Amino acid sequence: MLCQDRESGLRAVIAIHSTALGPALGGTRFHAYASDEEAVHDALNLARGMSYKNALAGLDHGGGKAVIIGDPDTLKSEELLLAYGRFVASLGGRYVTACDVGTYVRDMDVVSRTCQWTTGRSPENGGAGDSSVLTAFGVFQGMRASARHLWGASTLRGRKVGVSGVGKVGHHLVTHLLEDGAEVVITDVRQESVERVLATHPEVAVAADTDALIRTTGLDVYAPCALGGALDDETARALTAKVVCGAANNQLAHPGVEKDLSDRGILYAPDYVVNAGGVIQVADELHGFDFARAKAKATLIQDTTLAIFERAQSDGVPPAVAADRIAEQRMADAR
User: Stretch 312-323: mean pLDDT, rounded?
Assistant: First the structure.
Protein backbone atom coordinates (compact mmCIF):
# COMPACT_ATOMS: atom_id res chain seq x y z
CA MET A 1 0.00 0.00 0.00
CA LEU A 2 1.45 3.37 -1.05
CA CYS A 3 0.47 6.24 1.23
CA GLN A 4 0.70 9.96 0.59
CA ASP A 5 -0.65 12.97 2.46
CA ARG A 6 0.33 16.26 0.88
CA GLU A 7 -0.56 18.48 3.84
CA SER A 8 1.73 16.70 6.30
CA GLY A 9 4.35 15.59 3.78
CA LEU A 10 3.74 11.91 4.50
CA ARG A 11 5.02 9.39 1.99
CA ALA A 12 4.95 5.81 3.23
CA VAL A 13 4.79 2.18 2.16
CA ILE A 14 2.85 -0.51 4.04
CA ALA A 15 3.73 -4.06 3.03
CA ILE A 16 1.86 -7.21 4.12
CA HIS A 17 3.64 -10.47 3.35
CA SER A 18 1.41 -13.06 5.04
CA THR A 19 -1.66 -13.36 7.24
CA ALA A 20 -1.59 -17.17 7.40
CA LEU A 21 -1.03 -17.21 11.16
CA GLY A 22 -3.07 -14.09 11.93
CA PRO A 23 -2.99 -10.31 11.39
CA ALA A 24 0.34 -9.05 10.05
CA LEU A 25 2.47 -7.52 12.81
CA GLY A 26 5.58 -5.40 12.29
CA GLY A 27 7.07 -2.02 13.05
CA THR A 28 7.20 1.31 11.26
CA ARG A 29 10.61 2.42 10.01
CA PHE A 30 11.24 6.14 9.43
CA HIS A 31 14.26 6.57 7.17
CA ALA A 32 15.62 8.90 4.48
CA TYR A 33 15.65 6.45 1.58
CA ALA A 34 17.53 7.41 -1.56
CA SER A 35 14.48 6.62 -3.72
CA ASP A 36 10.91 5.39 -3.52
CA GLU A 37 12.05 2.13 -5.14
CA GLU A 38 14.54 1.56 -2.31
CA ALA A 39 11.79 2.19 0.25
CA VAL A 40 9.43 -0.31 -1.41
CA HIS A 41 12.20 -2.91 -1.62
CA ASP A 42 13.04 -2.46 2.06
CA ALA A 43 9.39 -2.67 3.14
CA LEU A 44 8.84 -5.89 1.18
CA ASN A 45 11.99 -7.52 2.57
CA LEU A 46 11.19 -6.46 6.11
CA ALA A 47 7.59 -7.69 5.84
CA ARG A 48 8.76 -11.12 4.67
CA GLY A 49 11.22 -11.24 7.54
CA MET A 50 8.42 -10.49 9.99
CA SER A 51 6.37 -13.44 8.71
CA TYR A 52 9.26 -15.78 9.45
CA LYS A 53 10.14 -14.05 12.72
CA ASN A 54 6.59 -14.25 14.07
CA ALA A 55 6.27 -17.88 13.01
CA LEU A 56 9.45 -18.93 14.80
CA ALA A 57 8.58 -16.85 17.85
CA GLY A 58 5.41 -18.91 18.21
CA LEU A 59 3.13 -15.91 17.66
CA ASP A 60 -0.28 -16.06 15.99
CA HIS A 61 0.64 -13.26 13.60
CA GLY A 62 1.69 -12.91 10.02
CA GLY A 63 4.29 -10.49 8.75
CA GLY A 64 4.01 -6.86 7.76
CA LYS A 65 6.15 -3.74 7.81
CA ALA A 66 5.81 -0.06 7.07
CA VAL A 67 8.36 2.54 6.07
CA ILE A 68 7.93 6.31 6.17
CA ILE A 69 10.17 8.03 3.65
CA GLY A 70 12.21 10.99 4.89
CA ASP A 71 14.55 12.20 7.58
CA PRO A 72 12.74 11.74 10.90
CA ASP A 73 14.78 14.56 12.46
CA THR A 74 13.29 17.11 10.06
CA LEU A 75 10.08 15.62 8.64
CA LYS A 76 8.40 13.96 11.61
CA SER A 77 5.41 15.85 13.00
CA GLU A 78 2.19 15.14 14.85
CA GLU A 79 0.18 15.80 11.70
CA LEU A 80 2.27 13.31 9.72
CA LEU A 81 1.95 10.56 12.34
CA LEU A 82 -1.81 11.09 12.60
CA ALA A 83 -2.10 10.84 8.82
CA TYR A 84 -0.03 7.67 8.85
CA GLY A 85 -2.32 6.20 11.52
CA ARG A 86 -5.33 6.81 9.29
CA PHE A 87 -3.73 4.79 6.50
CA VAL A 88 -2.98 1.88 8.83
CA ALA A 89 -6.54 2.04 10.19
CA SER A 90 -7.94 1.85 6.66
CA LEU A 91 -6.63 -1.74 6.48
CA GLY A 92 -9.15 -2.73 9.14
CA GLY A 93 -6.76 -4.69 11.36
CA ARG A 94 -4.97 -6.70 8.68
CA TYR A 95 -1.78 -4.89 9.75
CA VAL A 96 -0.77 -4.04 13.34
CA THR A 97 2.06 -1.53 13.64
CA ALA A 98 4.74 -0.80 16.25
CA CYS A 99 8.09 1.01 16.64
CA ASP A 100 11.15 0.45 14.48
CA VAL A 101 14.23 2.41 13.43
CA GLY A 102 13.37 6.11 13.54
CA THR A 103 10.12 5.73 15.50
CA TYR A 104 9.60 5.66 19.24
CA VAL A 105 7.02 4.99 21.93
CA ARG A 106 5.92 8.62 21.90
CA ASP A 107 5.31 8.34 18.14
CA MET A 108 3.11 5.26 18.59
CA ASP A 109 1.11 7.16 21.19
CA VAL A 110 0.32 9.72 18.49
CA VAL A 111 -0.41 7.11 15.80
CA SER A 112 -2.80 5.32 18.18
CA ARG A 113 -5.03 8.40 18.27
CA THR A 114 -6.15 7.63 14.71
CA CYS A 115 -5.48 3.86 14.64
CA GLN A 116 -6.55 1.25 17.18
CA TRP A 117 -4.17 -1.31 15.65
CA THR A 118 -1.08 0.27 17.20
CA THR A 119 1.33 -1.34 19.67
CA GLY A 120 4.56 -0.15 21.26
CA ARG A 121 2.67 2.58 23.09
CA SER A 122 3.66 3.99 26.47
CA PRO A 123 2.37 2.36 29.67
CA GLU A 124 0.40 5.56 30.31
CA ASN A 125 -1.48 4.90 27.08
CA GLY A 126 -2.12 1.22 27.70
CA GLY A 127 1.03 -0.07 26.02
CA ALA A 128 4.16 -2.01 26.88
CA GLY A 129 6.67 0.77 26.35
CA ASP A 130 10.06 0.44 24.69
CA SER A 131 10.27 -2.89 22.80
CA SER A 132 14.05 -2.57 22.42
CA VAL A 133 14.40 -3.89 25.99
CA LEU A 134 13.25 -7.39 25.12
CA THR A 135 14.79 -7.21 21.64
CA ALA A 136 18.20 -6.88 23.26
CA PHE A 137 17.35 -9.59 25.79
CA GLY A 138 16.39 -11.96 22.98
CA VAL A 139 19.61 -11.29 21.06
CA PHE A 140 21.51 -12.05 24.24
CA GLN A 141 19.66 -15.37 24.48
CA GLY A 142 20.66 -16.09 20.88
CA MET A 143 24.29 -15.39 21.77
CA ARG A 144 24.05 -17.74 24.73
CA ALA A 145 22.74 -20.45 22.41
CA SER A 146 25.58 -19.78 19.96
CA ALA A 147 28.14 -20.00 22.76
CA ARG A 148 26.68 -23.26 23.97
CA HIS A 149 26.65 -24.74 20.48
CA LEU A 150 30.20 -23.66 19.67
CA TRP A 151 32.00 -23.61 23.01
CA GLY A 152 29.84 -25.86 25.21
CA ALA A 153 28.57 -23.31 27.75
CA SER A 154 25.68 -20.81 27.62
CA THR A 155 27.77 -17.82 28.64
CA LEU A 156 29.81 -15.05 27.06
CA ARG A 157 32.11 -14.81 30.08
CA GLY A 158 35.67 -14.21 28.94
CA ARG A 159 34.58 -13.70 25.31
CA LYS A 160 35.21 -10.54 23.30
CA VAL A 161 32.03 -9.23 21.66
CA GLY A 162 31.88 -6.44 19.09
CA VAL A 163 28.61 -4.49 18.89
CA SER A 164 28.08 -2.36 15.79
CA GLY A 165 25.30 0.10 16.53
CA VAL A 166 24.58 1.00 20.14
CA GLY A 167 21.31 2.86 19.71
CA LYS A 168 17.91 1.70 20.95
CA VAL A 169 18.79 -2.02 21.10
CA GLY A 170 22.57 -2.09 21.10
CA HIS A 171 23.08 -0.18 24.33
CA HIS A 172 20.80 -2.62 26.22
CA LEU A 173 22.71 -5.54 24.69
CA VAL A 174 26.00 -4.10 25.95
CA THR A 175 24.62 -4.13 29.50
CA HIS A 176 23.60 -7.80 29.26
CA LEU A 177 27.03 -8.75 27.90
CA LEU A 178 28.95 -6.91 30.59
CA GLU A 179 26.78 -8.42 33.32
CA ASP A 180 27.60 -11.84 31.85
CA GLY A 181 31.33 -11.15 32.04
CA ALA A 182 32.07 -10.41 28.38
CA GLU A 183 34.64 -7.93 27.08
CA VAL A 184 32.84 -5.47 24.80
CA VAL A 185 33.98 -3.32 21.87
CA ILE A 186 31.49 -0.91 20.28
CA THR A 187 31.11 1.42 17.33
CA ASP A 188 28.35 3.69 16.04
CA VAL A 189 28.04 6.37 13.37
CA ARG A 190 26.41 8.59 16.00
CA GLN A 191 28.99 9.80 18.51
CA GLU A 192 26.27 10.63 21.02
CA SER A 193 25.26 6.94 21.11
CA VAL A 194 28.84 5.93 21.87
CA GLU A 195 29.12 8.58 24.57
CA ARG A 196 25.89 7.39 26.21
CA VAL A 197 27.31 3.87 26.56
CA LEU A 198 30.65 5.15 27.88
CA ALA A 199 28.91 7.31 30.45
CA THR A 200 27.42 4.17 32.00
CA HIS A 201 30.12 1.65 31.09
CA PRO A 202 33.53 3.38 30.82
CA GLU A 203 35.25 -0.02 30.60
CA VAL A 204 33.89 -0.56 27.07
CA ALA A 205 36.39 -0.19 24.21
CA VAL A 206 35.54 1.83 21.10
CA ALA A 207 36.46 1.00 17.49
CA ALA A 208 36.76 3.77 14.91
CA ASP A 209 34.15 2.21 12.61
CA THR A 210 32.57 -1.11 11.66
CA ASP A 211 35.48 -2.08 9.42
CA ALA A 212 37.88 -1.67 12.33
CA LEU A 213 35.49 -3.51 14.65
CA ILE A 214 35.21 -6.65 12.53
CA ARG A 215 39.02 -6.81 12.24
CA THR A 216 39.54 -6.52 16.01
CA THR A 217 42.11 -8.99 17.28
CA GLY A 218 40.63 -11.77 19.38
CA LEU A 219 37.00 -10.96 18.54
CA ASP A 220 34.74 -13.92 19.36
CA VAL A 221 31.28 -12.56 18.50
CA TYR A 222 30.17 -9.86 16.05
CA ALA A 223 26.77 -8.27 16.75
CA PRO A 224 25.42 -6.08 13.91
CA CYS A 225 22.72 -3.95 15.55
CA ALA A 226 22.19 -1.11 13.05
CA LEU A 227 20.59 -1.23 9.57
CA GLY A 228 20.44 -4.29 7.32
CA GLY A 229 22.94 -5.53 4.76
CA ALA A 230 25.81 -5.45 7.27
CA LEU A 231 27.15 -8.81 6.09
CA ASP A 232 28.38 -8.60 2.50
CA ASP A 233 31.12 -10.43 0.61
CA GLU A 234 33.87 -8.12 1.87
CA THR A 235 32.70 -8.32 5.49
CA ALA A 236 32.50 -12.12 5.35
CA ARG A 237 36.10 -12.27 4.15
CA ALA A 238 37.41 -9.79 6.73
CA LEU A 239 35.48 -10.96 9.80
CA THR A 240 37.63 -12.38 12.59
CA ALA A 241 34.80 -13.50 14.91
CA LYS A 242 33.53 -17.08 15.15
CA VAL A 243 29.90 -16.08 15.76
CA VAL A 244 27.60 -13.52 14.14
CA CYS A 245 24.56 -12.74 16.28
CA GLY A 246 22.96 -9.30 16.26
CA ALA A 247 19.74 -7.31 16.33
CA ALA A 248 19.72 -5.83 12.82
CA ASN A 249 17.13 -7.07 10.33
CA ASN A 250 18.14 -8.56 6.95
CA GLN A 251 21.82 -8.75 7.86
CA LEU A 252 22.84 -10.81 4.82
CA ALA A 253 23.47 -8.66 1.73
CA HIS A 254 22.57 -11.74 -0.34
CA PRO A 255 21.91 -15.42 0.50
CA GLY A 256 25.37 -16.54 -0.60
CA VAL A 257 27.00 -14.64 2.27
CA GLU A 258 25.89 -17.23 4.81
CA LYS A 259 27.63 -19.98 2.83
CA ASP A 260 30.79 -17.87 2.81
CA LEU A 261 30.53 -17.54 6.59
CA SER A 262 29.93 -21.27 6.96
CA ASP A 263 32.90 -22.10 4.72
CA ARG A 264 35.08 -20.00 7.05
CA GLY A 265 33.74 -21.77 10.13
CA ILE A 266 31.69 -18.78 11.32
CA LEU A 267 28.38 -19.60 13.02
CA TYR A 268 25.52 -17.32 11.91
CA ALA A 269 22.53 -17.01 14.24
CA PRO A 270 19.62 -16.03 11.93
CA ASP A 271 18.72 -12.42 12.62
CA TYR A 272 14.96 -12.81 12.56
CA VAL A 273 15.15 -15.57 15.16
CA VAL A 274 17.33 -13.85 17.75
CA ASN A 275 15.84 -10.35 17.42
CA ALA A 276 12.25 -11.49 18.01
CA GLY A 277 12.10 -10.23 21.60
CA GLY A 278 10.61 -6.92 20.55
CA VAL A 279 7.78 -8.41 18.54
CA ILE A 280 7.09 -10.85 21.38
CA GLN A 281 6.70 -7.82 23.64
CA VAL A 282 4.35 -5.86 21.39
CA ALA A 283 2.29 -8.97 20.58
CA ASP A 284 1.78 -9.49 24.31
CA GLU A 285 0.52 -5.91 24.52
CA LEU A 286 -2.51 -6.90 22.45
CA HIS A 287 -3.63 -9.20 25.26
CA GLY A 288 -3.01 -6.89 28.22
CA PHE A 289 0.73 -6.53 28.65
CA ASP A 290 2.55 -8.56 31.29
CA PHE A 291 6.33 -8.00 31.22
CA ALA A 292 7.19 -11.19 33.12
CA ARG A 293 5.12 -13.26 30.69
CA ALA A 294 6.70 -11.62 27.66
CA LYS A 295 10.22 -11.98 29.06
CA ALA A 296 9.62 -15.67 29.77
CA LYS A 297 8.62 -16.16 26.13
CA ALA A 298 11.67 -14.19 24.94
CA THR A 299 13.90 -16.46 27.04
CA LEU A 300 12.79 -19.34 24.79
CA ILE A 301 14.72 -17.72 21.93
CA GLN A 302 17.75 -19.57 23.29
CA ASP A 303 16.00 -22.93 22.89
CA THR A 304 14.70 -22.03 19.43
CA THR A 305 18.17 -20.97 18.27
CA LEU A 306 19.71 -24.21 19.56
CA ALA A 307 17.01 -26.22 17.77
CA ILE A 308 17.83 -24.40 14.54
CA PHE A 309 21.54 -25.17 14.87
CA GLU A 310 20.69 -28.84 15.45
CA ARG A 311 18.33 -28.90 12.44
CA ALA A 312 21.03 -27.26 10.32
CA GLN A 313 23.49 -30.00 11.28
CA SER A 314 21.04 -32.84 10.65
CA ASP A 315 19.90 -31.41 7.28
CA GLY A 316 23.39 -30.39 6.22
CA VAL A 317 22.31 -26.79 5.53
CA PRO A 318 23.22 -23.34 6.93
CA PRO A 319 21.25 -22.18 10.01
CA ALA A 320 19.22 -19.60 8.06
CA VAL A 321 17.98 -22.31 5.70
CA ALA A 322 17.05 -24.52 8.64
CA ALA A 323 15.20 -21.61 10.28
CA ASP A 324 13.31 -20.87 7.06
CA ARG A 325 12.22 -24.49 6.78
CA ILE A 326 10.81 -24.54 10.31
CA ALA A 327 8.97 -21.23 9.81
CA GLU A 328 7.61 -22.23 6.41
CA GLN A 329 6.28 -25.49 7.82
CA ARG A 330 4.39 -23.65 10.55
CA MET A 331 2.86 -21.24 8.03
CA ALA A 332 1.98 -24.10 5.68
CA ASP A 333 0.32 -26.04 8.51
CA ALA A 334 -1.73 -22.94 9.38
CA ARG A 335 -2.93 -22.57 5.79
Answer: 93
Cβ neighbours, 10 Å, residue 215: 13
Q: For 132-154, write each residue's pLDDT tens digit.
A: 899 999 999 999 999 999 999 99
DSSP H or E segment with residue 16: strand 10-18
Distance CA 248, CA 250 (A): 7
309-312 long-range contacts, Cβ below 8 Å, gap at least 24?
309/145, 309/146, 309/149, 309/267
Catalytic residue among 53, 65, 242, 297: 65
Q: Is 65 a catalytic residue?
A: yes
Assess whether pLDDT exceeds 80 at residue 335: no
Give the percent of the chain with pLDDT over 90.
Answer: 87
Q: What angle do CA 269, 272, 278 make, to 5 degrees?
A: 120
Q: Where does the chain have alpha helices with state H?
A: 36-56, 72-75, 78-89, 105-111, 132-151, 170-179, 191-200, 210-214, 233-238, 256-263, 271-274, 277-285, 291-299, 301-315, 319-334
Give the model confidence (pLDDT) of 87-111 as tens digits: 999 999 999 999 888 999 999 999 9
The reported pLDDT for the residue numbered 40 is 97
The amino acid at residue 179 is E
Q: Which residues contact 204 (CB under 8 A, 6 or more apart)?
A: 174, 178, 184, 185, 186, 197, 198
Q: Is the Cβ–Cβ distance between 327 and 55 less than 8 Å?
A: yes
pLDDT, position 287: 86
Q: Which domains does the chain have, with CATH numbers?
A: 2-48+62-122 (3.40.50.10860), 132-275+305-327 (3.40.50.720)
The Cα–Cα gap between 169 and 132 comes to 5
CA distance 163 to 173: 8
